[in-house]
Design goal:
The protein is built from 17 helices and ten strands. It has a six-stranded parallel β-sheet. Strands 1-10 form a two-stranded parallel sheet. The protein has a two-stranded antiparallel ribbon with strand order 4-5. The longest helix is centred in the middle third of the chain and has 18 residues.
Length: 461
């Protein structure tokens, strides 16, 4: 991790604590798994450190990752694969990779008027084939989540519709207050409960259970963990979604959760950068303003994100908040080059995927139209445009900006390369894994996973 020009005493202490706690792990999403034949409980691949439950019991088959393409290729080989795919893509295909919409229906071939109206194609599979997005995100309100076998069939069908470049299939599964896959998945405590235990290994175990269950469903990216430090007791949007109010305690929890998702073989996202913890306004319905100075940000908000970066977090989600003392323009962080490129990229050294928070939220739509929001986000340093409210307007605006030079092709390639690298690191670049419905039914809400939930609850304070 590279951290320069920033007063991060608390951050460095937190990261050092995490690294000490997790000594022996390569800590990288891009590290090859153990050699074939080295197995842990239930025949699962052994990790460099035991991934059994915190009480010493193994996870058995319940936590075994489903069969997936090997990710043991060397970094150099993965880089060559990424560059080969990038070189083969048209500008239109590259722009498509930047988008992650919501598609409507419980099956890839479900006909929906919403899909037709929003994307000009009736079924999720036809939308994917027509627009070639980089990924999709699943929600119960879109009809995506009904049963275990249904979700497996949906994710397999979506991947089948994107044979050239497999999809990132995401969920917003934090557990606790935000649990989009309830009641299919294990009912794990939320971040505040885990944080109250003071035991970062439990954050890792909870993330591994969640990641294992998501992967069994065919989901490969979780928009978790929350890296916000909830220092405002009147915060209406974060609250118990955060691990706590002390950055020195939150940072190790976030780092451990990232590691747990990686143990399960899925991508993790730290959110909401540069920090959504000190606000009394909900960015879903308004535009919060946080008046932290740079020194306050260094001390209060930055440490958990620095810790996540230290564990090679795959993605970081932006916040639709204004921090005028970090960027006086009045733009929300999602559209702020000083914050996303200046602080996140250059100061914290993050070169993974930067995702927006949902672009249908009022916090990001106050000042610009939906097309301009998408363009400005890419110019600020974003790679993945999540849930644009008007897909055609946003896609058309980005494509026009590339063709006019407002967004250079080199800048477009930067983002697409990061997205392809993430897919390569998760074994998704060549051929997507096929989820097994019978196995998913064994894994989700397994006795072992429910024991982890009970253990965490028993240790909460």
């Amino acid at each position: 991790m590279r951290v320069t020009g920033i007063a991060v005493t608390a951050s460095m202490a937190a990261v050092a604590s995490v690294l000490s706690m997790a000594a022996g792990c390569a800590g990288s999403a891009r590290t090859a798994p153990p050699a074939a034949g080295v197995t842990g409980p239930g025949g699962t691949p052994a990790s460099s450190e035991s991934s059994g439950t915190a009480d010493g019991t193994g996870t058995g088959e319940a936590s075994a990752s489903p069969t997936a393409p090997a990710t043991a290729a060397t970094p150099a080989a993965r880089s060559r694969d990424v560059e080969a795919v990038l070189a083969s893509m048209t500008v239109e295909e590259k722009v498509g990779q930047l988008f992650m919409p919501v598609l409507y229906g419980q099956a890839a071939d479900t006909v929906s008027g919403e899909n037709q109206a929003r994307f000009g194609a009736g079924t999720p599979a036809k939308v994917v084939a027509r627009h070639r997005p980089g990924g999709v995100i699943l929600f119960p309100w879109a009809g995506n989540i009904k049963s275990v076998r249904q979700v497996v069939a949906l994710t397999n069908g979506l991947q089948k519709a994107s044979p050239e470049i497999p999809l990132l299939i995401a969920a917003d599964q934090e557990n606790g207050k935000v649990s989009r896959l309830a009641p299919l998945v294990t009912d794990l405590p939320g971040a505040a409960t885990i944080g109250s235990t003071g035991d970062a290994s439990l954050a890792r175990r909870a993330a591994e259970v969640t990641g294992t269950e998501l992967r069994a469903l065919g989901i490969n990216l979780d928009f978790a963990p929350v890296a916000d430090v909830n220092i405002n007791p009147r915060n209406p949007v974060i609250g118990p979604r955060a691990y706590g109010s002390d950055p020195k305690k939150v940072a190790p929890m976030v780092a451990a959760a990232v590691r747990g998702f990686h143990d399960a073989g899925i991508a993790a996202t730290a959110k909401h950068f540069p920090g959504h913890g000190d606000t009394s306004v909900d960015s879903h319905t308004g535009l919060p303003v946080i008046k932290h100075s740079r020194a306050q940000w260094d001390r209060l908000d930055a440490p958990p994100f620095a810790a996540a970066i230290g564990r090679d977090v795959d993605a970081i989600m932006t916040a639709h908040v204004v921090m005028p003392r970090l960027d006086p323009s009045g733009d929300p962080a999602t559209l702020s080059r000083p914050i996303l490129t200046g602080l996140l990229r250059e100061k914290l050294g993050f070169d993974g995927v930067v995702s927006t928070d949902a672009l249908d939220m009022e916090g990001v739509r106050k000042k610009y139209g939906d097309g301009q929001v998408a363009v400005r986000a890419i110019q600020a340093g974003v790679d993945l445009l999540l849930m644009p409210p008007d897909y055609d307007e946003a896609h058309g605006a980005v494509l026009a900006a590339v063709r006019s030079g407002k967004i250079s092709e080199a800048r477009l390639d930067q983002s697409v390369r990061r997205l392809l690298r993430l897919k390569a690191a998760r074994g998704l670049l060549g051929k997507a894994p096929v989820a097994d419905p019978a196995r998913a039914e064994r894994v989700l809400r397994s006795a072992e996973h429910r024991r982890v939930a009970r253990l965490i609850t028993s240790r909460a304070r």
